[in-house]
């Protein structure tokens, strides 16, 4: 009774081709829209990353130094100032006269409240190691460059003591 084969209809092949082409076009449109959405999302991520890179670049050297100096000054209370001695910025010596101390290391020492040759001259080996640790410096460099000995000489030259 129902022996009708749909493939034997006169326009069945054409209907199959129309459905195949229609589904192909529909699949292409859906894929294209999905790809465009992905592209927009990735472009947004690229813009956000570019903004972050610009923020990093605008973070100037001075700001980076300020961050380091704040981190160091927060640890100044770890030093034994009863042995080293206290000094003020007004009575500061030019610590750059010591071989091995440049402008930035002088700033680091000042952030630790070390301002004078006398304070460095009063340091022990343990103090030097602790200072090197706090100012994020090579542990043996203070001793190797003899900052303490140089500070003693400069203190004696300056104050005749």
From TrEMBL:
Give me the segments passing through the membrane.
Answer: 12-34
Specify the domain of life of the species encoding this protein: Bacteria
Q: Which UniProt keywords apply?
A: Membrane, Transmembrane, Transmembrane helix
User: What is the name listed in the Swiss-Prot or TrEMBL entry for this protein?
Assistant: DUF4332 domain-containing protein
Q: Which organism is it from?
A: Larkinella knui
């Amino acid at each position: 009774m129902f022996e009708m084969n749909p493939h034997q209809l006169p326009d069945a092949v054409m209907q199959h081709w129309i459905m195949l082409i229609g589904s192909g076009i529909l699949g292409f449109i859906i894929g294209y829209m999905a790809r465009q959405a992905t592209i927009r999302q990735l472009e947004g991520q690229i813009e956000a990353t570019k903004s972050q890179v610009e923020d990093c670049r605008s973070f100037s050297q001075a700001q980076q130094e300020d961050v380091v100096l704040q981190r160091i000054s927060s640890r100044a209370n770890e030093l034994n100032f009863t042995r080293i001695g206290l000094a003020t910025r007004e009575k500061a010596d030019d610590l750059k006269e010591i071989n091995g101390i440049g402008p930035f290391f002088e700033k680091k020492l000042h952030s630790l409240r070390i301002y004078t040759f006398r304070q460095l001259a009063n340091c022990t080996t343990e103090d030097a190691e602790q200072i090197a640790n706090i100012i994020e410096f090579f542990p043996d460099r203070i001793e190797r460059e003899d900052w303490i000995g140089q500070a003693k000489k400069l203190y004696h030259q300056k104050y005749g003591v």
